[in-house]
Amino acid sequence: MVSYYHFSRMNKMLPDPGTWEEYVETFKAGKVLWGSWYDHVKGWWVAKDQHRILYLFYEDMKEDPKREIEKILKFLEKDISEEILNKIVYHTSFDVMKQNPMANYTTWPTSIMDHSISPFMRKGMPEDWKNDFTVAQNEEFDKDYQNKMAGSTLTFRTEI
């Protein structure tokens, strides 16, 4: 939610998300541009059992990027050398991609993506949500999450 909020702030092609407090309510109500996040992730989680879909988690990628890239390679049935694997790990790291204009959208005009509001690639830290949510917002979000994700086997980590 935090990433989506900051992306919506800087991406001038999207509706203004309002204040953080307003956005929390908009997000929980599923009134964001592409609809309910809950329905989206639950739908793909179910679809993975009927279709060849690889589900990855950001916290896992941050914790052990090489392991997660190896999962992708296995899923794609590809073998590569250790040297190439290490180059992929390096070039797909958050810090390297944040500096890469081909990944960070800094070449786009500010009329489309205004990096003075928020960079496209902000912090890349899984636990950074704690800096945006108040304790009350977090408690309310946790209740909403439990309600809307009830019955799903999908679980997320919020810390590494």
Automatic annotation (TrEMBL):
Transmembrane stretches, start-end: none
A Pfam family: Sulfotransfer_1
EC nos: 2.8.2.-
Keyword Iron carried by entry: no
GO molecular function, one term: sulfotransferase activity
Top-rank EC class of the record's enzyme: transferase
SUPFAM superfamilies with a match to the protein in the record: P-loop containing nucleoside triphosphate hydrolases
InterPro entries: P-loop_NTPase, Sulfotransferase_dom
Domain Sulfotransferase: 1-152
Gene3D superfamilies: P-loop containing nucleotide triphosphate hydrolases
Protein name: Sulfotransferase
Organism name: Piliocolobus tephrosceles (Ugandan red Colobus)
